[in-house]
Amino acid sequence: GQLMQRAARHSGNRLVSLLEGGYDLQGLAFSVAAHVGRLMKG
After folding, report:
1. CB–CB of 6/13 below 8 Å?
2. CA dist., res. 35 & res. 17, Å (int)
3. How many domains does the chain have?
4. Which of 8, 18, 20, 28 pairs with 34 at a CA distance of 20 to 30 A?
5. What pTM did the predictor assign?
6. In sequence order, what are the residues at sequence separation of 6 or more whose Cβ sits closer than 8 angstroms to the Cβ of residue 5?
7. Alpha carbon distance 20, 28 (integer Å)
8. CA–CA gap between residue 26 and residue 30 (Å, rounded)
């Protein structure tokens, strides 16, 4: 995606990624999987 392309171009492929959690563990698991999956797709 565009975010990873910009990170590659402007910061030597470095990117800080934060994901805030919550008390709904099932929702948190889904969010983490989606977040990391999207980062891995680039």
Report:
1. no
2. 9
3. 1
4. 8
5. 0.61
6. 42
7. 9
8. 6
